[in-house]
Amino acid sequence: MTVGIAIIDLNGHIVSLKSFKEAKYSDVVREVISHGRAIIVASDVFPAPKMVKKLAASLNAKIYSPSNVFTVGSKKEMVDEFLRDRTSIFSPSNAHQRDALAAAIKTYKIYEKKFNQINKRGKEKNLSFKEREEVKTLFINGMPITKALDFINDSKSILDSKKSKFENIIDPDLITDSDLDTPLDLNLDSQETLIKLKSRIKQQESQIKNQEVIIKNLRNKNKLLKNKIRKQKRKSSKLKFKLEKLQQDYSNEILLEKKVSSKINIIKKLQESYNNEKVLREKLEERLKTFNKIKTIEVSHKAVPVKIIKSFTRDGINESYHQGDLKSGDVVFLLNSRGGGSQTASLLSKLSLKAIIISDKMPPQAKEVLENNDIPLIKSSKIGIKMGKDFAIVQSEALDKEIQLWKNKIKKQRNQYEKEKLWNVIDEYRAQRKRDAQE
């Protein structure tokens, strides 16, 4: 399997960031101990894998694994934020390195505030960088900060004059090139720290060599890309020439297609005009046949042609009128007299129709307008109307009889109305005379 390893020191600096394919356990251990003593071994999953537990036991280190789900998004966000806040030459190149670095950062963040507190209090007690690191180690292993500081302070021996200079050298914030070249008489702990510094320098040199190899490879790749660009430019020039020729041919084809399309459009318009004229001619022929039938019926005097109005609406009346089917003195049949009002009735009144045949109940306001204009309303059930394709017919005798009955009825209604009106005047006159006499 592929193993990602990230090492962070107790001051939040990334010491190493690598990944190994088909790594052996010994390779992982060797990589860790080459950078110093491990204090905590962290994992990005819970529970920690067996290999992580085994590694922690081998290095005599504590183990940490997150208690909640550590999503890929949260890992990426944590790593990006950590690298953004620090100047580091390290950056994860794959998911294994990212996950390992996220686990290390997560663990470091748990102790970061306490580490800062140890640095501050340690400097106040004039503890060296090395001694402050020992305090942090004791704290991680369970000793309270105050007790750990006292423990290191009590065990601190009096240093010679060169000790002060050595402390400046091993403090990362105070290291200079001249300090690294100056031979020192160092004790065992100092030698161990110096070994760590030399190991870090060696690592930096290795990284520089790797960067030089990368730069060399990039230059070679750049040279290959430039050659490829030149070839692509030549190819592009040829393709551009072909494209221009194709565009010219295409333009000629477009012009031809436009001419053909124009002719086709003209033909379509002529065909459409012809079809419209044909439909109109057929309608006129049909209407002519109907007109001839109506004339034949009118000449016979035995039957009367009846014009049909499909709906008792303004549109229905106008449609029949503009088609030439309605004229003064016609008899019409309203297929549906409901929905009409006084205005639609007024339209029919202006035509001076002979009679209107209905098969249902007409609205009162429309009926009143027609009666006031002396247009008879005849029920179809009383005259035996016969329906044809475009018109209907009724017997002249039956129609004239119903018209006369309607006129008599209306005359009687009007006489009755006039009588009632007269009696109302007389009653009003009598009432007024009575009021005058009482006064």
What does this structure look like?
It is a single chain. It contains 13 helices and 10 strands. The chain is α/β, with parallel strands linked by helices. A 6-stranded mixed β-sheet has the order 8-7-6-5-10-9. Helix 5 crosses helix 6 and helix 11 runs parallel beside helix 12. It folds into 3 domains: 155 residues; 114 residues, no CATH class; 132 residues, Udp-n-acetylmuramoylalanyl-d-glutamate--2,6- Diaminopimelate Ligase, Chain: A, domain 1. The chain starts with a strand and ends with a helix. 64% of the residues lie in helices and 10% in strands.
Q: How much of the sequence is in beta strands?
A: 5-15%
**Termini distance?**
128 Å
**Within the largest sheet, what's the order of strands?**
8-7-6-5-10-9
Tertiary shape: elongated
- The multimeric state of the shown protein is single chain
The helix count comes to 13
| Overall helicity | 55-70%
Mean pLDDT over all positions = 80
- Helix and strand content put the structural class at alpha/beta
Main sheet attributes: strand count, strand direction, barrel closure? 6 strands, mixed
User: What is the total domain count?
Assistant: 3
Element-by-element helix/strand order: EEHEHEHHHHHHHEHEHEHEEEH
- What's the number of extended β-strand segments? 10
List unreliable stretches of 5+ residues.
158-188
* Rg (CA only): 56 Å
Detail the topology: elements first, then pairings.
Layout: E1 2-8, E2 14-21, H1 25-33, E3 40-42, H2 50-58, E4 62-64, H3 72-84, H4 95-124, H5 129-140, H6 145-154, H7 161-170, H8 177-181, H9 188-300, E5 303-309, H10 314-322, E6 331-334, H11 342-349, E7 355-358, H12 364-372, E8 377-379, E9 386-387, E10 392-395, H13 396-438
Parallel strand pairs: 3-4, 5-6, 6-7, 7-8
Antiparallel strand pairs: 1-2, 5-10, 9-10
Helix pairs in contact: 3-4, 4-5, 5-6, 11-12
